Model the fold of this input.
Amino acid sequence: MFISFLIGYVVLGLTLSAPIGPVNAAQLDKGVRGGFMPAWFIGLGAAAAAIIYIDRLSRGHSSAGASICAGVFMDVRQFCIAVYRGRRIVKSGSLVSEPIRSGSSELSRSFLQGFLMSLFNPLSIMFWLGIYGSVLARTVHTSTMDQLLLYSAAIIFGVLLWDLFMAAAVSFFRKYLTPSLLKGFAIISGLSLVAFGCYFGFKAFQFLFFT
Done:
């Protein structure tokens, strides 16, 4: 029974990481340009941000992340970044600007990029406050602190599994990507980012003018 609970939390970590978003798009870009390590360090940075969310929620500081003003600011910020980046990708028709080397400075930049993208991404905040917050509310009265820590570790393990899978898949398949396929992926990725940006902009507009 306990093992099934742990497996369930690992799966939860996988489902939190799997939806297409800025972090996965960044992993795709880094993986195509630099291979496994830069893409993996993007994921490690995102996992570090997930640990911060779990720690703050476990300590009862979820209200800080739920600030309305902060949420609107991040919606506007994500709207500008996502639409700008998506428009550039669609216009150029390429995810790849130039190859990158897997040096220590590049890996540090990849880690920081993944960390900041996940930490300040409104979708991440929505997932962690909503999904993990509800899980925590259900289990906090029936589990010990050690069990909660173990459940949280299982979620992080699921996040790391997905990041490892993404980095390995992109680095393996990049040798088979033809220019036409890369252009197709670029257009899809760019349009997805524009769609995400429009969603964030709509949410900010809705709050500012209709609430």
Summary: The chain has one domain: 2-210.
